[in-house]
Structure to design on (293 residues):
């Protein structure tokens, strides 16, 4: 399955730290294969999430200036392993990550100017061969119980019902900072609550619901024509993914959403407060998992 990770944002909410550094490579906690607490970058965790969902072809959208670093980070480096063979116990997770990378076909798409999340998605189009794809922002993670994958459930739902898009949403107390989804209750998907999406607005001043979209999606290739149509008709300075989803809905497209349940959390590192919460959340959950909880 195809998957896309966006790594091209400016990260201005993390200034001054983010000047010259990418927030997607901030560390979060995880439990290593031997049960120890380990640190992995957010982008590393996102790759593992997508692989669990069935991804085997991955396109990373980056700015040209970041391409050398990102390409190096996602390249298997046997010499690094040989150089540190005297501390083999510390290399366990690196070896494991390298095995994951060996199982993937990686491509790199360039977003030469920060023109929005929707524009970043368009940059990946030449690599996807008109196939459905998973999409995940590189600066956030879905934290879920080991051995589970809500993204795989979303992909299966999209395929089964031939949907144009499946969104992952969560209920928030103040939705004004998010893409806000409206929808009608639909039939459950296994244990998951499902919405049939009727409307989506980006950061509305007066939200019509409390359902906030996370930056994890499954799309049919129809999202590309919807994004291009919105750009052609409205000429936005920045093209948002919400613009494409709204256009899909206006054209009669079929969009569903699954609701994040209490066992799972969505954590973004896009702000200092968000990073602090994500670090604490992943530490707590990794420690609980290491204790057999």
């Amino acid at each position: 399955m195809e998957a896309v990770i966006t790594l091209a944002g400016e990260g201005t909410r993390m200034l001054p730290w983010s000047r010259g550094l990418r927030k997607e490579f901030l560390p979060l906690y995880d439990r290593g294969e031997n049960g120890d607490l380990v640190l992995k970058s957010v982008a590393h965790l996102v790759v593992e999430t997508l692989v669990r969902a069935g991804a085997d072809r991955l396109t990373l959208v980056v700015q040209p200036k970041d391409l050398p670093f990102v390409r190096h980070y996602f390249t298997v480096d046997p010499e690094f392993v040989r150089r540190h063979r005297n501390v083999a116990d510390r290399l366990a997770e690196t070896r494991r990550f390298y095995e994951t990378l060996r199982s993937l076909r990686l491509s790199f798409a360039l977003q030469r100017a920060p023109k929005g999340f929707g524009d970043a998605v368009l940059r990946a189009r030449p690599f996807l061969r008109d196939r459905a794809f998973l999409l995940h922002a590189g600066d956030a993670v879905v934290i879920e119980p080991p051995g589970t994958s809500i993204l795989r459930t979303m992909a299966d739902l999209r395929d089964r019902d031939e949907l144009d898009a499946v969104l992952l949403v969560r209920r928030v107390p103040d939705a004004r900072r998010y893409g806000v989804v409206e929808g009608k209750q639909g039939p459950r998907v296994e244990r998951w609550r499902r919405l049939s999406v009727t409307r989506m607005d980006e950061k509305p001043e007066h939200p019509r619901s409390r359902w906030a979209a996370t930056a994890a999606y499954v799309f049919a290739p129809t999202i590309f024509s919807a994004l291009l149509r919105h750009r052609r008709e409205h000429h936005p300075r920045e093209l948002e993914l919400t613009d494409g989803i709204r256009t899909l809905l206006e054209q009669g497209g079929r969009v569903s959403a699954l609701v994040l349940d209490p066992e799972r959390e969505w954590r973004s590192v896009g702000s200092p407060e968000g990073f602090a919460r994500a670090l604490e959340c992943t530490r707590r959950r990794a420690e609980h998992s290491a204790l057999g909880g």
